[in-house]
Design goal:
single chain, alpha/beta, globular, 12 helices, about 30% helix
């Protein structure tokens, strides 16, 4: 991760970056405040228990290294089975952070499972009144999408606080959350830097609100009433440890639910270890599954984008208007995520 002094220099360089004009619809939506050096940020555990060795210490280390002041949720060290405390307690931590005027943004410490369980327990009126950046990924997708649908302000699909914050992830977060810039995300140069080559399944360009996250979570929330409208959206998906047939099943669920008909484009990120464990497996590969589901679209689709359960993943602004260029394999932000 970039040292604090280097980060301050980066902030100064980005502060004067020219911003594109905002659309009237974008101006009408409330947005979270940008982050500043010295801000207090909340650390919460809305899903699985924080039980890995030094996991909480690592989260505090990274957040402090960003020049921020961590404030721990009251129940982050608790455990209820495989969850980080009871549903009521985990929801209470998030509610408290949104209501606390000293807390500028909220980081999830880790993912796992459990975010969807607390959605009915969150204080949505308070969250709408006090928009703040929620930062995290994986199971945090449930919170990202519910906020997009119920509260209407942007959140950031980015490493969890206890993840490994490498330079690419930190710089991406800094651009969007601190500088309030509108960077181009992905593309050929970024692919070379990460060592992960994306590919174009369908060329073309489209604009829409960026929505999505973890494929398992998105498919699990189908039919619950907690998903935002996908009409005209740019849908981003990623996952980990799912065999091709399971990815096929979840994509088919989205297909049958009409999601792919409604979106303007699709960005499939990294699907880490998404292959069969059977050494004699002779079925479809992940690439086969993606091609069969998405290759015939009349709208832009890219695969292998740098997001997901990988080091150096980019920060993605959920709920923000973006432009997807299938041929160039990048996303261009059309509005800032913060004010």
């Amino acid at each position: 991760m970039i040292a604090r002094r280097a980060a301050l220099g980066l902030m100064g360089g980005l502060a004067g970056a020219a911003l594109m004009p905002l659309a009237a619809a974008a101006r009408s939506r409330r947005k979270p405040p940008r982050l500043r050096q010295g801000d207090t940020v909340g650390l919460v555990a809305p899903a699985s228990a924080v039980t890995l060795p030094h996991e909480l210490d690592r989260a505090i280390h990274w957040i402090t290294g960003m020049g921020l002041v961590p404030k721990l949720g009251g129940h982050v060290a608790e455990q209820d089975g495989y969850l980080a405390g009871t549903d009521i307690d985990r929801a209470a931590d998030i509610n408290a952070m949104f209501a606390d005027p000293q807390v500028r943004a909220i980081f999830t410490i880790r993912g796992g499972w459990g975010g969807a369980r607390i959605l009915p327990l969150l204080d949505w009126a308070s969250m709408r009144t006090n928009p703040k950046l929620l930062i995290g990924y994986s199971d945090t997708t449930a919170l990202h999408l519910a906020i997009a649908g119920r509260a209407g302000f942007p959140t950031l699909h980015a490493p969890n606080a206890a993840s490994r914050w490498e330079a690419a992830s930190w710089e991406s977060l800094w651009n969007i959350a601190f500088a309030g810039a509108m960077p181009v995300l992905g593309g050929k140069e970024a692919e070379r830097a990460s060592g992960r080559a994306a590919r174009t399944l369908v060329p073309g360009a489209a604009r829409g609100r960026l929505l999505g996250g973890n494929l398992t979570v998105v498919s699990t929330l189908m039919g619950t009433g907690w998903l935002p409208s996908f009409d005209g959206a740019i849908l981003v998906l990623e996952d980990i440890n799912e065999e091709p047939y399971r990815v096929d099943r979840m994509l088919q669920q989205l297909q049958l639910a009409g999601v792919f008909e409604r979106v303007a484009g699709v960005v499939f990120g990294q699907c880490t270890r998404c292959r069969s464990r059977d050494p004699d497996y002779a079925g479809f590969t992940l690439d086969d599954v993606l091609e069969r589901h998405l290759g015939g679209f009349a709208k832009p689709v890219i695969a292998g984008f740098n997001t997901g359960h990988v080091r150096g993943q980019l920060t993605l602004p959920i709920g923000v208007m973006v432009e997807l260029d299938g041929g160039a394999r990048h996303l261009r932000m059309l509005e800032p995520a913060v004010i």
